[in-house]
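User: What would this chain look like folded?
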Amino acid sequence: MKYPILFLLALICFLGSCSNSENAKNIIGHWQGTQWLVENRPGNYNADSTSFKFDEKGNYTFTYKSNVEAGTYKVENNMLFTRPAGEKEMMVYIEKLSGDTLQFKMDRGGVSELLTLLRQRK
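Assistant: Here's the prediction, encoded as structure tokens.
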């Protein structure tokens, strides 16, 4: 092959786009919090009171205790971008997304957080 570097770059781009569409498809559904770690230790957040709902039209709802946030979302590779109605876009890193587990890796002012959620079946 004459241009192995170009082939590898094309392959990487193709695989990245597959991951992007797979994550966007797999995130759709209702997710319930199970664990919220701060600096790898249990934090003061109540994971059980945390839930996300993502629909196929790009809308989401986030609930924490009695607070509800709704807006739009998009998934790009391993990043979730949310935009609450009338506010700025925010990004969290998708650490893990499987059939039943979703983990968000976040950074709040230099403090590492990991939120684990499980898919809720109807």
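The radius of gyration is 16 Å. If you want, I can go into more detail on any region.
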